[in-house]
């Protein structure tokens, strides 16, 4: 055995990171070695001499065959000694050829009898007790590996429909698959050993096809790092002694969908003025408080069909949502208007209000009520004003998708078409007025603020009628921009705009309220850079929330279709490109592509059914049904 590094020469057998290698050359103080992974250059101290060689083929080194040796005899012979590697090798095998160096070294290091650290160091002979412990450990490891390979084989059989899941026996081998499916890990040893691609989609497929997951399991929010429970950060309760303007004498209306559980805006008429009241959590959720930090990390409330996960705690909802108690606290915008319908003056106050809740349908029925009629009239004036400024109105089918779990914990999916009501248009216009008013107030008073803008879309001069035209307009729209410099919002037809009407649900709105509150209280304002940082962080998290909501809706829609194989529905052709037709399915608010039917035209209605549903990659094929 060679004990000096100075004896390294070409074709010397060495160890590199515990694996065999051959020296093939020398270059500028480094040694070139051939490993099983290719040729690399290393420092002299990075390798250990195993045999002086020569061995000219790494393959012959790794595939050498040596006679079986009596390791137990060597163990007994060398008791209480520390022999060299070569001494042990020669006693067991009688010879120590270069080609056998790696196989012999591996046999000794894997043996329970010997502790080998490096080829040039003495070998320690383990005690009988250590040998027994090592043999027991090796036996347990081999048994565990055998059990694992049997489990991998059973998983393959499950995927082929030849076996069913034994959760107690096989479940532990699917845990790393689940971790990958939820993106809490980026690897899965089980999938790798089963020869399956280590992707979240493949992990999802395996979990469904083995029965480890029920088909309704929704992994999409988890993949975006979403928490499925509401925020837990504590919020200070509202101060009953705070100085608020008492508007409880006014009739205030919170108008929303019947399924809304977090009303955060209300409306009042006060002579020629209109009050737009917004929930006021910013009065106690202050910048950089624990609740503020958690809301910023979430970006927005997550609304998925299973239920909401709020960016602020449920306590904030009970304290600040409008109309959940006899008297509500609000940040209220008082607006007056010019003869042209534009905003004339804006005043902002913290207020007490008394709120009556109405659904859109109820409010539409009361549109001629003297207490509500001025709101509808003002909304119509605002629509006309924005239209004259080039606003873009897009009317595409919308649905409310809900999931209810029965007593047997099986979900029932329902779709409710959202019918456009006069009152929903009115409320939309009031919220736009509040956003415009906040932006103008901030700009007038030089308040660093959140502004939302949008470049003018490139809409073709000629677009089809009906849904096809609405779809084309949506495709032409540009993304919104959020920053601290005001700019046109072309889609809304507004010169400047901000979002301030959902501070319970959107972090950017909460930051805007915090800044307005500091101005009203005479406190130092957050500077533009600080505002931009907070807005950017919240907006980034909100994008993940939006993706989670979109993918969750797609998941439950596909689950519904898979659970109802006889479903048929009406689809509208909104575009035809080559041999492909883009369809919208109004009752599902779903878009897809199909081969274009012969003689098809935009806005044609066809009946389709669903096929080829794959929940794991959210794919489905819609097939036209002959009538």
What does this structure look like?
The chain is of the alpha+beta class and 627 residues long. The chain has 4 domains: 5-126, no CATH class; 129-213, Arc Repressor Mutant, subunit A, CATH 1.10.10; 246-551, no CATH class; 564-624, Beta Barrel (OB fold (Dihydrolipoamide Acetyltransferase, E2P)). It is 35% helix and 23% strand. It has 18 helices and 25 strands. Helix 11 packs across helix 18 (528-563). It is elongated.
Looking at the structure, what is the overall shape?
Answer: elongated
How are strands sequenced across the largest beta sheet?
A: 4-3-2-1-5
Query: How can the largest sheet be summarized?
Result: 5 strands, antiparallel
State mean pLDDT (0 to 100 scale). 92
Rg over C-alpha atoms, rounded to the nearest angstrom: 35 Å
Unreliable runs, pLDDT <50, ≥5 residues? 1-6
Q: How many beta-strand segments?
A: 25
**SS class:** alpha+beta
Cα distance spanning the termini: 87 Å
Q: Count the helices. How many? A: 18
Keywords:
627 residues, alpha+beta, Arc Repressor Mutant, subunit A, 4 domains, 5-stranded antiparallel sheet, 5-stranded mixed sheet, 35% helix, elongated, disordered N terminus
